[in-house]
Amino acid sequence: MEGTVQESTANELWGYKDSTPGAPSKPVGVTLDAKDLSYSVNLGGTWKRLLRNVNLHLDPGDMCALMGPSGAGKSTLLDLIADRKLVGVWSGDILINQVPRSPWFNRDSAYVLQDDVHIGTLTCEETIRYAAWSRMPEGTTVEQREARVKQLLEMMGISHVKDSYVGDALHKGISGGQMKRLSIAVEIVSLPNLIFLDEPTSGLDSSIAFEVMAAVKNLATQNRTCVSTIHQPSPEVFALFDKCVLLSAGRVIYFGAADEAMHHFTRPELGYRYEEGTNSAEFIIDVCGGNILPEDALSDTPRQPEELEELFKNSKFNVTKPVERQELLPPLDTYTRRHATTKLTQFNMLMHRSWTAMWRDYADLKANIGKNVVLGILIGIVFYGEANLKGPLFEATGIPTAEQLTMTSLLFFAMMYCLMSNLQSIPALCNKNLIYRRDLASFGYCASPYWASSCIVNLPLMMISHTIFITLIFILCEFPGGADYYFFLYFLLFFANMTSFYFAMTLAAGTGNAQLAFAIFPVAFLFLCMFAGFTIAVDDVPEGWIWAPYVSYARWVFQGLMINEYNRFDGNDDTYGHGNGAQVIENYDFQDFNKYNS
């Protein structure tokens, strides 16, 4: 109850007229100020300054465009004021309502990435619903969440596709414009006062780009401050912006009303000529990039960013309001926790979302189950009846029999398949990792419930496919023993399968790149199997590598399988009076080990 009261208070302070979590409301808005903002990064020991003394002031309801040529610093500026920069050093002030940003600033703002990252097998409505589940305040009822979902679908103009799958590379889904509006809806599910967008029209044609930015304009008219980087907008899109910031080499060469930018550059002091009927946005970007020369230019050298910055500072168009930092005002921080909901709520949402997405991915389900059926039958045919090993285990000369080597190879190959079968999971895991990083930056949920749900949600499907594989090879290869042998084989290889999957998860999370993870996985797998005890006995490992068998989880799996198989020969000497199971285990240096410790 205390958390709910605190959330309501926070909503009121941030400008909501109605603090009921699900109710439509119009915020009174916030001001955004940057004062003498500079930013530098260390590149190989040399500091490079990407932003220089940026000043701007935005009022509630302003829709502002950050524009300039490539490398001008517009994305850097957006990330810096949105508190998304994790490296580099910055100076100056970034103020919200004339006070520094609160520690929970990312909860009070929305950041829409350039790339649309969603789960393809969820519908548009479900995608927003799951975001609302974890981002709306703890204690919000289902009815209030549903009201918010409906409100956002209507606000973004995607109500007609609410039951359509989002889609991805493998599943047909909604259009690019609808996808972008869905991304905006997901990020503004808590109805924040500040909205940041990184190239929202990238890859869209002019008509769809206008639809997307018109939806953003609708948000701005509700007293929300919207800041967007944008590259070469059409005249119709540019006309939607109230203000624009023009950057060149990290310097502000214009900040003010968007429809007055062209007039600034065509005044006599600058001398640029604008042809009526052409795109004014392209004209001012060309000026920023030095692609247009003034009419009275005496050389082919365009005006430098320093000169353009100075001309703007001394012009009547420079109307940036001076904002004095007020240390005595407290930050707008009344939250009692970093996230809107508890870890249990986040875990429940993530489990429900992952289950829904996984069981709808019929192609992946069929491929996963089909793969285990095919490999189980293939191994069963190749090693048909070979697991029914009776002895002798050694020839009269002490050389292992062909039957013993075949059985050992079967155990090793079955383990290898269980370890390698998770390689195809890496692309899906990397895609999930992108969604995770997006939600983590927005304070949608924290790491621990995501980790727990990721570890658990795949186990049922893994168990089904694993059961098919083990049962097929157990029957076709005619493994000995009864239920005790079967269940030991089943669970030891299942744990190996789990460990391999978690290793793939670690690679996907650590690299964030499917190609890099694909490259690392086989190398790591080769290392693990090299020291599993099959190719070289544990005690024969070269000095300097004696640690390797202890970190190879393949070694512990193979060791358990071998002891489980050959312990049943103890005390049963063959016709030649030697070569029992204990001798096989000793040859691999697996003696003095309890198989259940595996």
Describe what this molecule looks like in 3D.
With 598 residues, the protein is of the alpha/beta class. Helix content is 46%, strand content 11%. The protein has 21 helices and 10 strands. It has helices at 2-13, 74-81, 124-135, 142-155, 176-187, 206-220, 235-238, 261-265, 280-288, 305-313, 343-360, 362-382, 402-420, 426-441, 447-457, 459-476, 483-511, 514-530, 548-551, 553-566, 581-587, and strands at residues 32-43, 46-58, 63-67, 89-96, 99-100, 109-112, 194-198, 225-229, 243-248, 251-257. It has a 6-stranded mixed sheet, sandwiched between helices. Strands 2-1-4-5 form a 4-stranded antiparallel sheet, covered by helices on one side. The radius of gyration is 32 Å and the shape is elongated.
